[in-house]
Design a protein that fits this description.
Helices cover 44% and strands 17% of the residues. It is of the alpha/beta class. α6 packs parallel to α7, α16 (370-383) packs across α28 (680-694) and α21 packs parallel to α22. The mean pLDDT is 87.
Length: 697
């Protein structure tokens, strides 16, 4: 058992960054302080930061100074070895590492990249570093262009070389393995190493190996002519446009890059049309070679198109350009969040995190950090996969969130809207979202439409809803989506990116209705503050709750808190603390507090209490000494919607806190509302918490 780990390879391009991202993510889900250290970096230009380190620090917001994450560049280490000053080099590395170790609960150490000159010395230097830092090694080998036998032999030889030098190895990761060979690789490897060694095989993933248009443009030093906003398009293959158009069209594959001289207007227009056509795969982009550009009429025609894929121009000829493209190795960079999320998802899917956890020491933080909370949410959602309907299927944010949810295999999804329009939007946005991986329904033409109409009529006929009205209402995506949940064709619904809160929850109030014993539907936000997660309620639904309603909101919020792994300590907020204040509003909060104490004596609750006394330990001790809640409240109940909504937005904007929600409480089945200003991450998080709610039904 250890509090550090060394991720090592013995060849270039093994994809060990997948293990580094996955490891840091896993550890942040268990402890608050995780360090990252890469003793030797390939970046020799002091003015440029090493991309991988920058991506790790940025994505996880690790509070580590960039210069503290490494000790030497490769050239410096080569010089040290040539001068036989390896002892001095190791002393420097140990010194820099110890500074990190003293400040962090666990440190992920990543070995060198085996690129360029000096490869011969790198293995020895990695062995030396791991040994002197007392770090057990996780060996990463690549299966790309290797047979199963070659891969297994490579892995076993590297493992034995570490053992011969008295360095502990805790696991072997065979990365970029053919999907068909995964089990065979694991079986053969396991048979040749000790049983307590963790053996993992991760398949080849085109989303990580394939470069983006941005990477290709940077490598080729290209000029971007069109499609600047789609430069994150993934390129899975490329084809040279040097034939007649009908024959060329036969060579278009999904995510293809087309390389052609700029005077081939037929190839350019044919490629753009193929990308728009429902009968052809998505085109990633076009490279115009030899410095030639389309004529002015062609430029004008392209500029007038509604959607244009990336078109870039290079000075080099077609042959030289295609050779350069073929040699590109994609890297995970800070701006490519999609690739980082995919790397983490691969790690979680194929690495035995429990087995790994048994071999390392992690420190349980008292409380829950935002990263721990989000990590746990996704893990919970995946543990029992649910089916969520998203009524606003043609909204760009919804589609981008759907891509993320499906790629991480968090939920099953139904999108409501016109299938053709949604398919076109997916292509226009350059999303890697297979329409066959989701369900798409147009309410008016759905096979369930008439059954849903009849059900709505039966449910609402006593409220003066006739058959014609029911038919009209069921063409509305909110009614159709809610009916899917009511009938069990979906487990939950998330809407509100386009529609108002009232439009989203009205159908739920009409026929989903509240749970037994609950008379009021309320909402909470999970406020992910810098070092803790708090629950704010009600900030979205009830304008002026009575004392009875406030008590119900508090109890529902406490139950939500418990369900999501946060110990509930309820603060009933007001403009005074304890018995210091008087007035109708304070008395309403005081009465609500008494009702909660009577109904749920097991809950820790304080009220009335001011916000500062609820969250600041010093103020809490001064104003309410001896309180179990003051200074450490985790569930904050606001006296009215005006106060709650403004406070959550103020805290969110001023502290940079992530606000997940609103999550509705009290309904028989989960229906959740989004803000019309929501982001892709807001939608993703709301779907995740909705899926978790569904698990309790």
């Amino acid at each position: 058992m250890t509090k550090n780990i060394f991720i090592a390879s013995a060849e270039p391009y093994t994809g060990k960054s997948v293990i580094a991202f996955g490891m840091v993510n896993m550890l942040l889900g268990k402890t608050q302080k995780v360090g990252y250290f890469k003793p030797i970096i390939a970046q020799d230009d002091p003015l440029q930061k090493e991309q991988h380190i920058e991506a790790i620090l940025d994505y996880f917001a690790l509070p580590i100074n960039y210069n503290d994450t490494f000790a030497f560049t490769r050239q410096q280490v080569l010089h040290q070895f040539e001068s036989e000053n390896s002892g001095e080099m190791i002393n420097t590395i140990i010194s820099k590492y110890k500074k990190l170790e003293d400040n962090y609960d666990f440190t992920v150490i990543e070995g060198s990249d085996f690129l360029g000159e000096g490869i011969a010395f790198e293995f020895e230097s990695n062995v030396l570093i791991a040994k002197n830092l007392g770090a057990p090694v996780m060996v990463v080998v690549s299966g790309e262009n290797k047979t199963v036998g070659q891969l297994v032999n490579t892995a076993v030889n590297i493992y034995r070389n570490f053992l011969l030098r008295d360095v502990q190895v805790i696991g072997i990761v065979a990365n970029m393995v053919s999907q068909a060979d995964l089990e065979q690789v694991k079986s053969m490897l396991s048979s040749q190493v000790p049983q307590d060694l963790m053996v993992t095989a991760i398949p080849m993933e085109s989303g990580l190996q394939s470069p983006t248009m941005k990477e290709i443009a940077s490598t080729l030093d290209a000029k971007i002519l069109f499609g600047q906003d789609l430069m994150d398009n993934q390129v899975d293959n490329f084809v040279t446009g040097a034939m007649m158009l009908p024959n060329f069209l036969r060579h278009i594959k999904d995510n293809v890059l087309i390389v052609t001289p700029g005077d081939r207007g037929d190839i350019i227009i044919g490629s753009l049309q193929a990308n728009l056509s429902a009968n052809y795969p998505k085109v990633a982009g076009i490279v115009l070679t030899a410095g030639s550009l389309p004529d002015e009429p062609m430029i004008r025609l392209i500029e007038g198109l509604q959607s244009v894929i990336p078109i870039i121009s290079v000075e080099k000829g077609t042959f030289e350009t295609t050779r350069a493209i073929g040699a590109i190795h994609s890297r995970i960079t800070a701006e490519n969040k999609k690739k980082i999320a995919l790397a983490i998802d691969l790690f979680e899917k194929y690495v035995d995190s429990k087995g790994l956890d048994d071999k390392i020491i992690t420190f349980q933080y008292q409380g829950i950090t935002p990263h721990m909370f989000q990590y746990q949410l996704v893990k919970w959602a995946k543990s029992q996969k649910k089916h969520i309907v998203l009524p606003e299927g043609n909204d760009e944010r919804i589609l981008k969130a759907a891509e993320k949810l499906i790629s991480q295999d968090v939920v099953s999804l139904t999108l409501l809207g016109d299938p053709q329009e949604i398919g076109n939007s997916i292509k226009r946005l350059g999303l890697n979202l297979d329409v066959n991986a989701i369900h798409i329904h147009n309410p008016a033409t759905s096979a369930q439409y008439y059954d849903y109409v009849d059900t709505l009529y039966e449910l609402r006929k006593n409220k003066n809803v006739n058959q014609e009205m029911a038919r009209d209402m069921m063409t509305d995506v909110s009614y159709f989506g809610t009916m899917m949940v009511y009938k069990g064709d979906a487990d939950g619904m998330v809407s509100g990116a386009v529609h108002t809160t009232q439009h989203t929850i009205r159908p739920a109030l009409q026929f989903i209705k509240t749970r037994p014993g609950v008379s009021v539907v309320s909402s909470v936000f999970f406020m992910c503050l810098p070092e803790r997660v708090a629950i704010f309620g009600d900030c979205a639904v009830n304008p002026n709750p009575t004392a009875q309603q406030l008590a119900e909101i508090a109890i529902s919020s406490a139950e939500t808190s418990q369900r999501f792994g946060i110990e509930p300590r309820i603060a009933m907020l007001s403009y005074s603390s304890g018995s210091s204040g008087e007035g109708e509003d304070v008395e309403r909060v005081r009465e609500a507090t008494m009702i909660v104490k009577e109904r749920r004596p097991d809950l820790k609750i304080e009220g009335p209490i001011q916000y500062d006394a609820a969250v600041d330990p010093l103020v809490g001790r001064q104003k309410l000494p001896g309180s179990e809640v003051a200074g450490k409240a985790s569930v904050l109940i606001f006296p009215d919607l005006n106060t709650g909504n403004n406070t959550y937005k103020a805290v969110q904007r001023e502290t940079g806190a992530l606000a997940i929600g609103p999550m509705l409480q009290g309904l028989n089945k989960p229906i959740n509302d989004l803000s019309r200003g929501c982001t892709v991450d807001d939608i993703f998080n709301t779907v995740v918490i909705t899926a978790i709610q569904c698990q309790d039904i």
